[in-house]
Amino acid sequence: MNVAVVFNLVGVVILFSSLFMIVPVLTAFYYGGQDLSALGISFLITFLGGLLLYFLTKSQKKVELKHRDGFAVVTFAWIAMAMFGALPYIISGVSLSFTDAYFESMAGFTTTGASVFSNIEEFPKGILLWRSLTQWIGGMGIIVFSLAILPMLGAGGMQLFKAEVPDIGVEKLKPRIIDMAKSLWYIYAGLTAILALLLWIFGMNLFDAVCHAFTTMATGGFSTKSSSIAYFQSGYIEVIITIFMFLACINFSLLFYALRGKLSRLAKSSEFKFYCSVVVVSIIIVTLNIRASEHLSILDALRYASFQVVSIMTTGFTTADYEMWPVLSQVLLIFLMLFGGMVGSTGGGMKQVRILLMFKQAYRELYQLIHPHAVTALRLDGKNVDKETLGGIWGFLFLFVLIAVTATLCMAALGLDIITSASTVISAMSNVGPALGEAGPSDNYSTIPTAGKWVLMFCMLVGRLEIYTVILLFVPIFWQK
Amino acid sequence: MRIIIVGAGEVGLQLATFLSAENIDVVVIDKNKEKLKRLSDELDIALIEGEGGAPSVLEEAGADEADILLAVTDMDETNMIACLVAKVMFRIPRNVARIRNLEYFSNEVLLNSLGINPAISPEIEAARAVNRLIEVPFASDVEDFEDGAVKVIGFRIPSDSKLIGKAFKNLDLAKPKILIGAIKRGDKIIIPSGDDTLKKNDIIFLPVQRENIDLVCSSIGGVTTPVKRIMIAGGGRIGFYVAKTMEERNINVKIIEMDSERCKFLLKALKKSVILNGDISDQKLLEEENINDMDVFAAISNNDELNIMASLLAKSLGAKKVITIVNKTDYLPLANNLGIEAVLSPRLITAGTILKYVRDGNILSLTTVAEGQAEIMEAEAKEGSILIGKTLREVELPKKTLIGAIIRNEKVIIPSGNDKIAGNDKLIIFTLQESIKQVEKLLR
Question: What is the ipTM of this complex?
Answer without folding.
Answer: 0.71
